[in-house]
Amino acid sequence: MTTLEIDDIVADFTEKNGGKCAPYLYEKFPKHCCTSLNDCVCHGIPKEEDVLEEGDILNVDVTTILDGYYADANRMFIIGKTTPEKEKLVNVTKECLDAGIAAVKPWGFINAIGDAIQTICDKHHYGVVRDLCGHGVGMKFHDEPEVCHYRQKKDGMLIVPGMVFTIEPMINMGTYKVFIDADDPYGWEVYTEDGKPSAQWEKTLLVTEDGVEIITE
Asked: How open is the CA angle 186-65-7, to the nearest 5 degrees?
């Protein structure tokens, strides 16, 4: 199977269910979802030449517009059986997402999310990507607040009931440093600087009076 076939499935399913694929032609992005393979951190462009192989780890990132509202989510997939190192990276990154969500408290502060994620990554000597972040979402694709996934010196924005934002940690097996592929004519695809694998999980959540509600479960 190719990543382009995944894009076709996402486009078809979204249209049949009355939605629109937000990434399509957003700032010239050419496809309907992002498919980020192995050392591609995020914004991978689905391609006919990207054939999935045993041992690959793949992130599929989908943002849907329905009734004027945006919701953003992504998931990791292990193709067949992969190495213990890659499997651990995928699982620890999911643990990071869960810890970030657990850190969200009404009337708490936004940077508690990054602190919780960084604490887990430090234990495993993983790199937390700093050049990209989670974000507010709702009537727009990207909005306030900015949600950093690494530890900050300040508390950041106050979290209040009614906020809707994503948490989407990008965790690298090696360095946190990344680069945009110079051969990508659209300027979207982000890769790890050292070529080691990266994983990401994402959910959109609503802050309530007494906690959070996951709206992309």
From this structure: 50
Question: Taking Cα atoms as reference points, which of 67, 3, 55 lies closest to residue 32?
Answer: 3
Reply yes or no on whether the pLDDT at 217 is more than 90. no
By C-alpha distance, which of 157, 160, 198 is closest to 176? 198
Q: Which residues pair with 186 in a beta bridge?
A: none
Look-up: residue for tokens 């591609």? 40
- Whether the pTM exceeds 0.90: the reply is yes
For residue 131, what are its two tokens? 């050049």
Q: Which residue has the tokens 């972040």?
A: 133
Give the other-Cβ count within 10 Å of 166's Cβ: 22
Mean pLDDT of 149-159: 95
16-43, pLDDT tens digit by residue? 999 999 999 999 999 999 999 999 999 9
Query: What is the per-residue DSSP string for 200-217?
Result: E-BEEEEE-SSSEEES--
N residues, the chain? 217
Sign of CA dihedral 94, 97, 98, 99: positive
